[in-house]
Amino acid sequence: MKAENLTALQASLVNDGYCIIQDCLPAETLAALNQDIDQTFRETPFGIGDFYGYNTKRFGSLVKRSRYCADLVLEPLVLRLVENVLGSSCERIQLNVAQAISVHPGEIAQFPHRDDDMWPCTKNEREFLVNVIWPLSQFSADNGATRIYPGSHRQVIENLTQLGRPAIAECSPGDAIVFLGSTIHGAGANVSDEERRAVVVGYSLGWLKPYENNWLAYPPQVARTFSPELAALVGYAQHRPNLGNYEGQCPSILLGDRVPAHIHAIDSLRPDQAQAVREFAAIQRGR
User: Fold this and answer.
1) Could you report how far apart the first and last alpha carbons of the chain are, in Å?
2) 3-class DSSP state for residue 192?
3) Does an H or E element contain 186, and which?
4) Which of 9, 125, 154, 206 lies at a CB distance of 3.0 to 4.6 Å from 92, suitable for a disulfide?
5) Residues of the chain with pLDDT under 70
6) Angle between helix 76-86 and 3-16 (nearest 10)
7) Is the peptide bond before 105 cis (omega within 30 degrees of 0)?
8) If you ran DSSP here, which 8-state letter would residue 212 be given?
């Protein structure tokens, strides 16, 4: 990874609200992933609702559906960008979603939206989310390539007439479309005769409730086959202080060969909290 590439991508992500990393992964990796989930694409019914789309298919739990999904989730350059954006607001990031999406011919344009609207709290003080769209097929203006509104992460938009012209993210398998959760975007209309497939991998602040319920998607018997880094991203790690614990310990304890019948709780505090508690406890014991 060249430092100047990371710097330029970071600048685009922060200033424009998105960036496109060309040739981020080999096209062969995306082709193999597409092949692994092809049958699931075929068997998944179309969505119900004007937002999800009546001619669009979606399904999650991708990390267990194909071993190639881990290459997307753990891509080093993407993770560096995500950490640089989110790292100052949390101790660790988490996987927010790993979802496959197929926009079929006849689908209308998706409502332009911000993904961080899923959390009903004050925005603009920090970023909550970074999403990455990985095309599995060629993205074009005709088949529904994602429309992104540059600079919208810095704007107060009260109605759609205030939006400027979108950038159409035309790109190929192997490219990565990275955008902030506060950036307005939406899938375009598919006026072609071809299906447009993609995978969305999202990362959010580790103390937020994620979009996808990862503990159901990846229960312990599944997650113990993951690398420690991947298991931590899908939720088998605590976020200090004590968030996401299991019986007072890091949930990674469930991924071992033997899980104790009775578990003792262990403090998992931020350094400042640990220091304050330690000093208070010392005074009490001195008495």
Assistant:
1) 56
2) coil
3) strand 185-186
4) 206
5) 1-4
6) 50
7) no
8) S
pLDDT reported for residue 287: 73
Residues 6+ apart with CB under 8 A from 72: 25, 29, 33, 98, 132, 134, 199, 201
Per residue in 213-271, pLDDT (tens digit) is 999 999 999 999 999 999 999 999 999 999 999 999 999 999 998 888 899 999 999 99
Domain extents for the chain? 3-212, 213-287
Sign of the CA dihedral with 106 first, then 111, 117, and 118 last: negative
CATH class of 3-212: mainly beta
Identify whether the C-beta of residue 109 lies closer than 8 Å to the C-beta of residue 188: yes
DSSP class of residue 246?
B
Q: Over the stretch 188-208, which tens digit does the pLDDT of each residue have?
A: 999 999 999 999 999 999 999
Residue pointed to by tokens 């995978």: 199
For residue 7, give both structure tokens: 């710097």
